[in-house]
Write a structure and sequence with these properties.
This protein is of the alpha/beta class. The protein contains seven helices and seven strands, in the order H-E-H-E-H-E-H-H-E-H-E-E-E-H. It is globular, with a radius of gyration of 19 Å. It starts with a helix and ends with a helix.
């Protein structure tokens, strides 16, 4: 009888471990999360390419990206990477351009069926000085979605409802404006979304280098494990 109990326990433990190792991950991101040939849809703009572009980055292999390292090192599977270089969360991009067809809120319903969603955004909203707007947690208008705060709230509200029983994490780049940092913290807290504030990320041309990518993967791994 004792042997049977131990066997049952070990089988349950193995099944639990296998399940954890087979969780799938989807990414909603900007240039930091792109790599040529690994995006869905494949028409998304890319920053990191297979053919080296050493004038802008030393990253030239998908295995060097933060998300590939994180997924492989933790035994996960990639579900979908819907990242697009230059994209903002809200519908206002650089030079106040209307980027409704490129924004995070335009792409947030195309993440497949993952167990974990990693949202790595806001860098371009901060850099482009997109209109910040007011905090608003419902009854959004079309005009609201051209502003950062209501658009981010709208995005998180949608993702929580669209992907139930999914782990959702927001990743916050370092070296962004204080205003955007405070905005991300406030809205993530409102929706009870864990917020990873990245630190000391090595960059070239404003984008993570190989060293920076490794730091992101490491910080994300430690952050998620600390919450278990």
């Amino acid at each position: 009888m004792k042997h049977k109990i131990i066997t049952t326990f070990l089988l349950a433990l193995l099944c639990s471990t296998a399940y954890a190792q087979n969780k799938s991950v989807s990414i909603l991101g900007d240039s930091y999360s792109t790599f040529e040939g690994y995006l869905e849809p494949d028409t998304n703009y890319v920053w990191y390419f297979n053919r080296p572009r050493f004038n802008q980055t030393d990253v030239n292999d998908v295995t060097q990206t933060w998300w590939h390292k994180f997924i492989k090192e933790n035994g996960y599977k990639l579900c979908r990477n819907n990242s697009l270089s230059g994209s903002t969360i809200c519908n206002t991009g650089y030079n106040k351009e209307d980027v409704t067809h490129l924004s995070f809120i335009h792409r947030m319903d195309n993440l497949g069926c993952p167990d974990i969603i990693l949202i790595f955004g806001g860098t371009n909203d901060s850099w482009a000085h997109s209109p910040i707007g007011d905090y608003k947690y419902g009854e959004w208008t079309k005009a609201d979605l051209y502003q950062v705060r209501p658009a981010m709230a709208y995005m998180l509200d949608f993702i929580i409802k669209r992907y139930p029983n999914t782990e959702i994490y927001f990743m916050l780049n370092n070296e962004l404006s204080d205003e955007f940092n405070a905005t991300a913290e406030t809205i993530c807290q409102h929706y009870d979304i864990p917020l990873l504030k990245l630190e000391a990320i090595d960059k070239k041309s404003g984008h993570p280098s190989i060293k920076g990518m490794a730091a992101i993967a490491d910080q994300l791994t430690r952050f998620i494990k600390s919450r278990k």
